[in-house]
Amino acid sequence: MKILSSELVHLGFGKYVRSDQVTAVIPIEEERGPGRRTFVHIQGQSDPIIASRAEDTIVRDLVQEPREVTQTRQQQEILQDLLVNLGNVNSTVRRISRDEGTLDLDLLERRLKQVLEN
Questions:
Q1: d(CA 79, CA 71)
Q2: Between the chain's N and C termini, which has fewer beta carbons within 10 Å?
Q3: Alpha helices of 1-118 — where are they, by DSSP H?
Q4: Burial class (CB in 10 A: 0-12, 13-18, 19+), 15
Q5: Hey, how many other C-beta atoms are within 10 angstroms of the C-beta on 64?
Q6: pLDDT at residue 26, as a whole number
Q7: Is residue 9 helix, strand or coil?
Q8: pLDDT tens-digit series, residues 55-87
Q9: What pLDDT shows up at residue 61?
């Protein structure tokens, strides 16, 4: 994962910072509560900003997954959805699609299972 460049990240209550200016995100442990969740350290500032959002949420907004990771996850989800839907196709429709057309749903289902197991 890499830090997004020059993106505004919401800290809560109208506070925003540039993603590439953040140097540290630290959860507040003492006196934590509404409006006081996370210390966000900014490059060039000695005192941190107090954010009302949780540290994991801020970090998620600061970083970007590599495009390949996002695409792979989306492809896996689509294949899983297709496999679930194929499981709902009855045997008559499967036979007709195989014998009258060129689509072997049983073979497709087996191949999807193999891909998703790896």
A1: 12
A2: C
A3: 55-62, 67-87, 91-99, 105-117
A4: middle
A5: 16
A6: 97
A7: strand
A8: 988 988 888 766 677 688 889 989 999 999 999
A9: 86
What was the pLDDT predicted at 65?
Answer: 65
Backbone angles phi, psi at 42, to 5 degrees: -115, 140
Residue pair 38/49 in contact by the 8 Å Cβ criterion: no
Query: Cα(89)–Cα(96) distance, rounded to whole angstroms?
Result: 11
For the chain, state the CA radius of gyration: 24
Q: What CA–CA distance (Å, rounded) separates 37 from 9?
A: 15
The residues, any chain, with a CB within 8 Å of residue 35's CB and separated by 6 or more, are 12, 13, 50, 52
Closest CA to 41 of 66, 60, 62: 62
Regions of the chain short of the pLDDT cut 70:
1, 65-67, 70
Tell me if 11 sits within 8 A of 58, measured CB to CB. yes
Cβ atoms of residues 10 and 53 within 8 Å: yes
In 3D space, the residue among 78, 70, 65 whose CA is nearest the CA of residue 116 turns out to be 78
User: Locate tokens 């994991």: which residue?
Assistant: 56
